[in-house]
Specification:
Two copies of one chain form a homodimer. By secondary structure, the first copy, chain A, is α+β, with helices and mostly antiparallel strands. Helices cover about 35% and strands about 25% of the residues of chain A. The mean pLDDT of chain A is about 90. At the A-B interface, helix 1, strand 1, strand 2, strand 3 and helix 4 of A face helix 1, strand 1, strand 2, strand 3 and helix 4 of B.
Chain lengths: ~300, ~300
């Protein structure tokens, strides 16, 4: 069974369809998420222990951001073939700095011998009004925070041996302040963890709606254009390479102005009634390929 | 660096010294714990997918029990070389049944391709008054729930090909009702995850105290004596093989009667002022070896 089919089976059985599970608790909602990362697919050669720590924390913190939540704390399970003091200290510093950057606390973890370096972070947060994936409505604006292409550029820099710049880009900021600001306004939200295209399809499926996206409106990381002038190449990096960890969300048109006052983002299209995802590119309207980043 | 030293480094840096991290939240305390299990060291040949699921949930639920907490929900990250539908369904059933047995909910998870079967469960619970490892005081009673030797017996049955009985024993009940009942009374508590001896030393270190334990008072699983009549062999299974997941705790003498009304347990010794662990065996008092179950 492929990972996607297996995930669908799990989702059906667990009735999970959001970036976090939601636990109503007293007058609030706890949001709760876990992510597994490992050497072979998540950390290219050249990734520092600090970056591994940062990224391990950031993926779960990003999921909490995507629910409009404030992270409270993080646990990390670490499996490694050996435990080298310097490595552990750097890793901890990355974990802690990333948590601190969004006012979360690294609370503890577990340690295990493992053939392959494997890290699992679990984040707990609180959301006044958790934003689901399922709320997009026809006519609403489709928006994205930051700029696209971050991980795509980093991967190419790792390959090219530009390790320092690659590590910097790999330490992405979890969009917690933006998520909190948007929590009041957004009708649906997700973090881009498998590429813009895949995330659009996930929002579309959960909401029972579709999207029309304008390629020329996409905020693209400067380094994408520095790396390659070939449009096809750029499109691949921006639409399908994924792991940008920016927030993708929909907003009722009436909320646009207030939302724009609360944080920075770009409007990239609008919600359609039909359940498909269209991309406007060079005046052509074509179906966007549902192809994402395969870890 | 050995796992123990690395854990100490992590503990110092993270100020963690309990079965769960504690997050004060409104008028309650959230308790939060994560555990990594994997094929090579945690699941002997013959372990069914159901048992793998049960045990994955149970280790985290047991940590919450050891804080005197009620589990709310569980997340599970699963790394596997392939995702086979029957395996996943059995695994989910084990996870869900274990959660349901203690009124917890399986809330979701993450899925990843991985060379080695690897599972990480993270439990979230709530405790009115979290019981630490650090509260044991001289003169108090040392107690344990259930009977010792469960995992030791199961491991031998797996080796002997008695797979069905081994799987049954491997699906241990997380002592949540006992933990909740004892939460009101116990001064310190831990779950036995690395053998009675190791857990005693962990309590002793956290509390700055010691213990005198009487071997003849230890509650021993019937099957231990069925398996072997050799005393040395039995002692190894009961004291050092570990992973019994029973609760080990201390009680002020004045609380003993009330605690005994609230749940079943056995008094096995008393707390000493001196920081060591003594075992009374055949009228000899000897230092108990600080040797645990190495995963």
């Amino acid at each position: 069974m492929r990972e996607l089919e297996a995930l669908k089976l799990l989702y059906r059985r667990l009735s999970v369809g959001d970036d976090c599970a939601i636990i109503p608790f007293e007058n609030a909602n706890l949001v709760f998420t876990t992510d597994m990362l490992h050497q072979a697919t998540d950390f290219p050669r050249g990734t520092t222990a600090y970056t591994i720590g940062w990224r391990t924390a950031a993926v779960s913190l990003s999921d909490i951001a995507a629910m409009g939540g404030q992270p409270l704390g993080l646990l990390v399970a670490l499996g490694a073939p050996e435990f080298e003091r310097h490595f552990l200290e750097e890793l901890l510093e990355g974990l802690e700095n990333c948590c601190t950057s969004v006012k979360a606390k690294l609370l503890g973890g577990d340690l295990d011998h493992h053939q392959e370096l494997t890290l699992v972070s679990t984040g707990l947060g609180i959301a006044a009004r958790p934003v689901p994936r399922s709320g997009a409505k026809p006519g609403e604006a489709v928006c994205v925070t930051g700029a696209l292409g971050r991980t795509a550029v980093a991967l190419r820099l790792f390959e090219a041996g530009q390790i320092e710049r690659a590590n910097e880009l790999f330490c992405f900021p979890p969009r917690v302040p933006e998520g909190l600001a948007l929590g009041e306004h957004a009708s649906s939200m997700i973090d881009i963890s498998d590429g813009l295209a895949r995330s659009l399809y996930q929002l579309a499926e959960a909401s029972g709606a579709g999207f029309e996206i304008e390629y020329d409106k996409l905020p693209i990381l400067l380094q994408v254009e520095e790396l390659t002038q070939r449009r096809k190449d750029q499109q691949e990096m921006v639409l399908h390479t994924g792991e940008d960890f920016e927030l993708l969300f929909t907003l009722p048109q009436g909320r646009l102005k207030d939302a724009q006052k609360s944080c920075e983002f770009t409007v990239i299209g609008h919600v359609l009634k039909e359940r498909n995802v269209q991309l406007r590119l060079n005046e052509d309207l074509q179906e966007l390929e549902d192809r994402g980043y395969q870890h």
